[in-house]
Batch of 2 targets.
Target 1
Amino acid sequence: MNYLTQTRSNNPTYTTFTDAILDPNADLGGLYTFANITSFQDFSWLKEANYTQICRKVFSQLGIIESLATTGHSHIESALQSYESFRHPQIAPLIQIARNLYCLELYHGPTFAFKDMALQPFSHLLDSLAKEQKQKYLILSATSGDTGPATLHGFANSTNIRAICIYPSGGTSEVQRLQMTTHTAPNLKVFGIHGNFDTAQSALKSLLNKQSFRERLSRKGYALSAANSVNIGRIAFQIVYYFVIAREMFKQGIKKFDVIVPSGNFGNALAGFFARELGVPITKLCIACNPNDILSEFFNTGVYDLRNKTLVTSFSPAMDILKSSNIERLLFAYFGAEKTKQYMESLDTERIFSLTKEELAQLQTVFEARSFSDTACLEGINQAFKEHYMLDPHTSNAYLFAKLRTNTLPTQEAQVILSTAYFAKFAKATFKALKGGDSKRMDALDDLHTLQEIQQEIRTNINPNFALESEILSLFGKKEIHTSIYQVADLEEEILHFCV
Ligand SMILES: *Cc1c(COP(=O)(O)O)cnc(C)c1O
């Protein structure tokens, strides 16, 4: 299979992987996706394979390398070089935290969030393609906190690409904000805006769809692309780490496992589904949600209903999402283009769609889902801490789900939670969980002091030598470059002004 298909079209459109990542908006209103994935029959190669070798093997099975034309190999090689900036030699280490419970740590990339797993190689790939095409690109992204730093880091100093991040002012953690505003590379720009993440996301979408904006950019020599998980390129890189889990499990003689994914836009879990299609022996994919419980409602009732939902802000902001873009690709994989089109159009116009009983039953053979309150989230961090493992608030939701399932699980079956961020990015929530501090006192402490108190706490309780990563602490001493906060209405002119 060398071509991608579109989720709302019955006629295969034969878009190559290159075209889909350079211009992720499918012309029939849907998304590009993989179709007819062929499973590996043999996994003997996996035992000795390291992270980048797994990636080459998976991309070749998906037809991606051929689809990148004759120079495919060199593009992939330059993408894979980005893993050299990761702090852990295994890239994504699997840690055992209890009997039959493991954690795949996806936060050892340069910005301490799982977004690095895909955005680092993805940005290098895009840069390499842009150079080959001798085309300049403007990459836009909206962020609730983790996508922004990873995108900026990935594209910093890339010659043919300018990257812009739009974030809601006041809507990210202090560490996340500094990871963006202190960037010095001349091809990067960060716009804080007045509004929440939805405001930022809609501003991004309307610019991406605005013809006159594209034309003005094009007169300046720029093509427009986006780096959110609507881009199939990001999903592709995320499939790889599910094979890492399999490799480690096979080494221990474990043949089947369940994976629990802290979910928001459903990109991570969808990559797990594709890995399962490729033969990774995942029994269940479990979707952990925060108080924004639309996905858990969907997988438990078959109804995706936006009508009575309002977004609530939680301790796990990267999961504060109601319109989960990648559900569309799951619908396509199970029910085909016609049904997907019908359901997604119904979501747009009626703000609801409902699966049939049979369709729901099909999904439930693979998926389970649950949502957890903010109070539970803090308890999860605290409970894991007592078991000598530090969780960030996103991962805590997955941990709680695993703990709930433990009793009903056959003794041979292992559970793996995916850890999506380093806890120190979320100092306030972690502090509150460990010290039970009331929020009034926390407001008075700035994040640096909060982090230092957490460091003390961990030293005394877990590890006498524990030190926070110096890259995080040093952010507080850096000069902030991108300090202005903008009105959404002014973004277009500001962006054009930046694209010289
Ligand atoms: C983005 C993100 C998630 C959600 O991942 P999706 O692929 O959008 O479901 C969870 N946790 C963290 C820390 C994230 O940055």
Target 2
Amino acid sequence: MKSVFDFDSRLLDAAAQAEQDASAQFAAIDAVSQHCTAKVLKAFQSQKISAACFAGANGYGYDDIGRDQLDKVWAEVFHTEDALVRHHFVSGTHALSTALFGVLRPGDRLVSVTGSPYDTLEEVIGIRGSGNGSLRDFGVQYGQVDLTAEGLPDYDAIPEAVRGARVVYLQRSRGYSLRPALSVAAIRSIAELTRRVNPDAVIMVDNCYGEFVDYDEPTDAGADLIIGSLIKNPGGGIAETGGYIAGRAALVEQCAYRLTCVGMGKEVGCSLNQCRQMYLGLFMAPEVVANARKTGAFAAALFTRLGFSCLPEPGRTAGDIITVLKLRSPRAMEAFCAGIQAGSPVDSYVTPEAWDMPGYESRVIMAAGTFTGGASIELSADGPMREPYAVYLQGGLTYGSGKLGVLTAAQSMLDAGLLTL
Ligand SMILES: *Cc1c(COP(=O)(O)O)cnc(C)c1O
């Protein structure tokens, strides 16, 4: 490595120590990956996946075998009745929006029990922006249970708040916040609390960044519907676009009616030439998620040694693939992101700048030198330019390249005089 890249030798010493600090975590990550790989492999076998599933269909997509079998594989992996896995979802937000509009009706109440939802969902719900076309515009009421000061669910407040709610909404990942990711155990507790006062509520989980991080998924813990993006964890870095919704069959059908048309639902929407990538991506996903998690664990160990506070703290289990590095200044964020970009395989020669991204409230800086545009299962770093100037690091298709990217970011900060060794 030293003979290829010119890193400061003291930085390489710190990196070697950081890797040792993280060794127990690496072993735990591998154990989860092995279990999730088994789930995926078993589903491919029991659904009899063959090369015929990879051939694309066009036109209306009636009897599109690849598409229909992929839904079944997905449902088996996530232990659900049905799934809707489609390249037609343009992003995770689109899949989440489809699920919300699919299930909610005028007069219904949606209650988020994990504080404010991910930035882009605020406009969908109608709590930010003009509200035009939002759930609020269609007469859906919104309530929210804020997290405690420690960033944990407020279990005391949840039962009263979810009484009468049609959808009880949870976000598994920390998103752009400093709160910890929700563990599957916490999701189980919330589901049980909810069922006690509101047995008919639809428990919906934004599963973005959470797939294959734990032995179980939210659907093993009482969730009725999970939603995620294929350019994050379950696409394994191979799926080119898309999202998924999985859960109870009647709810998945409502979502399919929203995605396509009432009456047509899941039976239309051709897979074009996307199937092979979606199958291969799902097959790779547990291992790719492990590589991303190791990259994050390494970064937390290294930057802790370099004097920065990181979340989750080194040695603590993460419930998603995100590692937060509190870099304390806008300049440090820029230098770090410039380094992640420079350490990427694609677009390594450009310098990221903060910009007003659609759907986000603050200016956001993003480093992503990715094969798939915006794919955050690939090594990427981003963050809103606001206190506490924290960078959210995620992804890393391979651990070796993820580690080199993190080292390039540290070297960039060192060169800018923003790091002392
Ligand atoms: C990524 C993400 C989303 C959806 O974002 P898109 O960029 O639209 O895919 C929603 N919630 C969380 C927690 C996310 O991480």
